[in-house]
TrEMBL record, chain A:
Compositional bias segments (type: Acidic residues): 733-761
Pfam families: Adaptin_N
Keywords, sorted A to Z: Membrane, Protein transport, Transport
Keyword Zinc: no
GO terms of biological process kind: intracellular protein transport; vesicle-mediated transport
Protein name as it appears in the record: Clathrin assembly complex beta adaptin component
Region entry Disordered, spans: 680-720, 733-802
Biased composition (Low complexity): 680-713, 762-775
Family of the protein in this entry: Belongs to the adaptor complexes large subunit family.
From TrEMBL, chain B:
Alphabetized Pfam families for the sequence: Adap_comp_sub
Entry similarity comment: Belongs to the adaptor complexes medium subunit family.
InterPro entries cross-referenced by the UniProt entry: Adaptor_comp_med_subunit, AP2_Mu_C_sf, Clathrin_mu, Longin-like_dom_sf, MHD
Annotated localization: Endomembrane system
Coiled-coil ranges (or none): none
Keyword Protein transport (UniProt): yes
Stored Gene3D superfamilies: 3.30.450.60, Mu homology domain, subdomain B
The organism of origin for this protein: Suhomyces tanzawaensis NRRL Y-17324
Protein name, per record: Clathrin adaptor, mu subunit
Stretches assigned to the MHD domain: 220-492
PANTHER family: AP COMPLEX SUBUNIT MU
Domain of life, per lineage: Eukaryota
Top-level taxonomy: Eukaryota, Fungi, Dikarya, Ascomycota, Saccharomycotina
Keyword Transcription recorded: no
Amino acid sequence: MADSFSKISSMLESARDFTIEAAVSASTRLVDTPSSMRPKEISKLLNSRSDRDILSGMRCVISLISRGEDGQMYFADVVKNVTTSNQKIKNLVLTYLIRYAETEPDTALLSINSIQKSLNDKDPINRAKAIRSLAGIRIQTIVPILLLCIKRTISDPSPIVRAATAISLGKVYDMDNSTKKQVMDYLSKLLADSEPQVVTSAIKTYYKMKENLGDGNKKWDPIHGNFRRFCGIVRELDEWAQSFLIELLTEYSRKFLPRPKLYLKDSSNQVIDLPENWKLIPFPIYDITFDKDLELFLDSLKLLVYSASENVILSIAKALYSLAPPLSFRSLQVNSALVRIATSSKKHISYFALQLISSIAEQDSGLFDQSFKKFYVYPTDSLTVAKSKLEILSLLVNDNNHKYIVEELKYYAAHSKNVQISKEAFKAIGKCSQIAPEKILSWCLKQVKNRTGPILNELLTVIRYSIQEKSNLTTNIANQKEEIIQTTYKLSLILQDRTFGLEGEAKASIIWFIGEFTDAANNTIGPDVLRLLIRGFATEPEVVRYQILVLAAKSFSYELNRIKKEYPDDEIDQLVNENIVCLMFQHILQLSKYDASYDTRDRARMLNVLLNTGSEQAQLASLFLQVPKPAPFVNSLSETSSHNKNLTKYLEVSDWSNPEDLPPASVRKETKVQVNKLGTSGVSSVSSGFGNGTKSPVPSSSHAISSASFNSNEKPKFTGKQTYQLQSLDDFFGSDEEEEEEEEEDEEEQEADGAESETESSFESSSGESSSDESVNPDAENGSAQEEDSDADSRKSFLARN
Amino acid sequence: MFEAVYIADINNNLVFEYLINLSSPKFKSLTPILSQAAQNHDQLPLIEINPEYFIVFEKTKNLLIYVLCSNESHSNPLMPLIFIQRLLEVMSDYFGTPLALTKIDANNDTLTLLINEMLDDGTPNTTDFNKLRELIPSKSFLSQLLSTSNELASSAAAHVTKSHMPNHSGSGAKLEPLNTIPWRRSNVKYTNNEMYVDIIETVNVILKPAKLAKKTQLYSSNNHFDSAFYSSLKASSQMVPISGHILGQINFISHLTGVPLLQLLLSINGLDLQLPSFHKCIEVERWLSSPGTLSFIPADGKSVLMNYEIDLDSAHRANDLLGLISVDYRSGLGVSKNEFEVKLIIDNVKAVSKIEDMKVEIFCEEEGLGEVTNVKSNRITHGDFTYKGKGHCEWNLRTVNTGILPLLQGTIITSNMEPEDSRESTPNLIAVTTVKPIRPEYVKLTFNYKGSVPSGLKVDSLKVVSAKGMGDTVKPYKGVKYITRSGDFVIRS
């Protein structure tokens, strides 16, 4: 029984797919008609009397546009349909208008009136759409009208409409910068709205506008009073606004809050400011004190780390990275959250988490060293992911885990299919060699024979690094020397082994290496290597010839010093001239003088002057040639693999403000929450997880009617100064009516103007609706009379232009 | 921030584009850059066009989705990627899964409207599909009719005799104030109230055979002719996990009327779930005070309630957490030390009847010993073995029953290997010991099965705590499913 039903339902499923395909062919039929005929067909549909035809016409237009074709030629036909009562058609027309209004502003203006009328629609969704589309029609001349509409919708009872208004404000400012003051005024009202949905949109708009508001501190004015409330409601916003808000508040904190202080728990008991770089924290155990507001902000993030939106986690990480020490980072479990994203199956997203982890691990590797195994490279990882993982591994190495990590890195170096990965792995090994140099060195020497090209270069760098580290250590000199000699000897054997063709670069590196450690090896190896190389000097590539010259010079300089020390002055000249190393040097010098390369010739001349013009210069020469070189910068890993540019830019924050410039904490005294509802029940009564636990000030109502029915959980109480006058219901409707009438008059005027065009008939039906609208959409008007006037003025000017 | 959204097929032919204003570039003008980048598979999903603009893209099975972003504000670099994810969620909610090109093409007007809501002024606006359903009526009349009849059929299948049509809120008048739960659409009505929990765990692990004693190795190489012999040498060589984790996901499908408050109790069995992430609807405080309790008002339709991770590195009994399938793997066997053996041990568990899409891939690459030219199978008990070239071969078992022991023995043949007959004629023991073993680089397992999850996580109960709008007498149908999948299940030589 059940079986047969499931059969039927699967049949129906396939039938559905089939019909969808049939629908495709129906709607594409028009799109596929020859392009010469198409516009005619479509305009016929758009001008039809039947809604169904118009709808399919609109569908065609929209689908043409979404296929990358130009839909501008249908402009007039489409705009005509804006008066339709069919919401489906209207939505499509509005979408079209937003896109093309700029191209034909004059025709587009005809539609304004009817969109404005939708602002009185019963359905809040349609009102919201209307205000959004009105702002989406980016024609500067309508800005005054738009502002007027916004003035009404800003106190709409539905949060959807107010949210849409918040978005529209951003566009108004984009179109006309002179509205800045007005827009900011409205926006700060919406930022203080009681509904999270509205705050969500307002934050998005503010975030976007902030970029263009200049550098002054004035743009932060709307945030001051809302800071504490935002901390309370951040979890109720949508994922985008959460990110934006955290970033805003992070920047705010750097600007307006005092820097946290660290109380070090070492012997000095120092109190220091939180340094920019975590590396600069001198002692790992400390207490920290935050400013109260900063603490509030950081506390508000505590539960957000459980968010499923990765972008929010990234924002939190940024906030803590720039506002708090590693201790707080760990206590909020942000490190675990980042590791979670890094190991998730969404590869692209995990890449950014890896990048961030490597940036943070650079400053404090302790945060992640527990989970180092999470950064092992899987064979399916892409090169970019593998690179970041290797980088992190090399940063996380410490005494406890180096055994595992180095073993793992060796595996990648030896087995990875991708040359790039093994190269990176060698680099990473080089970094690790600080911890366990002996084993790595001997392993590397074994590997030299199997490797070629860039990998060999990396390998030699690693060897050089570990040797140099050793020679820098002063302890246990005899032992170290022994090892250096051994290593150099092994390398010289590799150099002489003709069975595997060393590439020029690698050869040059080894020769340089031998020369560099002449002193450490008591010049036991250099002369012999030199002897073997002289024969083939002419056939060697340029880099090798150059290095041979350098080796000869170093070797000779060492001999010179030795002779000087051991014999009296008068014998020196003779001894030097008889010395085999000297003879080899002179020979190579001779050869180099005629080298094809400028560099080699140049260096040959320089060495000639230094070493062949008497013993006084010899001192200088030895200084010159045997100066201890800095160990190769193996940390360069991060430089070469280049952190993601977008991420680096993202992590940039402004400097902490000077403590003297900070405004008093009282600026953050909470402003009043704007409540605009008519008896909708609060969320908190439905879901206890939503809306409780907020430390925000209790919303107070500006409407007499709404206060009683508002929010069953919280008792409304009035705090702070009264910025807002309570209106009685009569006042409220009274003022509204006046306003409404005035507007209607204007609209009628406008209509008369618009009617000049040929679309007369379609605009007719509008005036009759006005009386019913007022009762449905009561809204509060709080603007001063002065503003009213200026609005009216600008409207007139607009009409005159029209 | 976002300037345009393009959807193209896998060959970079435009299917859909949405530009936020007229000055945004058309897809055509970007095609050369994009097709160049598309060839580079290993790249980041990020194409820089010029210092001001960059494109982020995501590749699905048959679609390429591009989002053009401006660089001015240096905002959160994850936002475009998350936006694409939300877009995919919305599209699959509206147009059904799997997302086919034809569906997008047929509904491009709806999609335009959707993106118009999802993006405003270049900033993500309403991206939750539950909310979008309220703003944009979902389906055309025809498909709505079909889907209702569809639901009718399924309701009949569930032996429910009531035959009311579910009322999709899109068509109803919305005079009453909208529901204020941001993740749930308002006025949800169903005739059959159903809810389903899916627990899906993905195993990612790198395994390594524990080092065998030298003796056995020598022994086995001496007995190379009897290839069946060395497989029985030791019942199961120990595998050591080098690194691994299980990714868990709890999916929820809700078809419930009204605004129900649910409680889902999980038996965690002392597992360490690390730091889980939760859907917006979950009360995190509740979870923290009593771990294992998920209390929530579900979103309508599909949602991911929770993601968790089980760390195999710190777990005591990591080997027990790998699920039903364990592997016995040896390599470097035989005279030329170029043979390997893979034996799968599939435990017999009541709840799991079969393993699906079982596949073993073997990747060989030996640099020092010449290129791998072929991999031969010497013995195979189940499924097919194919060599795919470039040292990659595949043992495909498709669907197998539990409680069996499939076995594969193979030989790797490299380019500079002596011909076989000459090798056989001179079985020189000294030579044998000096031969360098040729091993596969790694072996990768792919499988999935239903019925249990490796961590042993279980749903204890799923209760309706309060059923506002559903009626107290209604007992919703409940279903729980456990699914195990392999992610990166890798065995190193």
